[in-house]
Amino acid sequence: MFTDMLAVVRRIPKGRVSTYGEVATASGHPGAARQVVWALRAATNVPWHRVLGAGGRIRLTGDSGFEQRLRLQSEGVIITGDKIDLKRFRHVFRHT
DNA sequence: AAGATGACGCCCG
DNA sequence: CCGGGCGCCATCT
Predict the structure, then answer these.
(1) Residue A80 phi/psi, 5° resolution?
(2) What CA–CA distance (Å, rounded) separates A36 from A24?
């Protein structure tokens, strides 16, 4: 399960983002958004900063949230307040 | 075994 | 936009 989710997260290209819910669904585990968090927490070498809450909101709190902002901005993602414009940066998973 | 937690999501007022 | 409530589910106490 976690491995499936991590595989999905790893597919998010630089400069693009996704959401916990999207990752859960795309990995074959719809509704398991909370488990995506667990997967990211336990994993390493994954672009965790590219995963946001529904609506493109940064759900991370405190210092980590600040870091996520910096990382996203450094990839060219525009952040307004605490939200990201999904219309513009959301990554769409596909099966080729 | 039972209750609490959380980087969640969705609906309603 | 903001707050409140409920469903969800692996993990931790």
Answers:
(1) -110, 110
(2) 6
Structure tokens at A2: 């976690």
Give the nearest nucleotide to A55, CA to C1'.
B9
Full DSSP string of A41-56: HH--SS-GGGEEBGGG
Cite residues whose beta carbon is less than 7 Å from strand B.
A 19-21, 33-34, 36-37, 40-41, 48-49, 51, 53-54, 57, 59-61, 64, 68
Q: What gap in Å lies between CA A5 and CA A20, rounded to an integer?
A: 9
- Say if CB A37 and CB A20 are below 8 A apart: yes
Pairwise CA distance, residues A84 & A78, whole Å: 6
User: What number is the average pLDDT over the span A46-60?
Assistant: 96
> How much is the mean pLDDT over chain A?
95
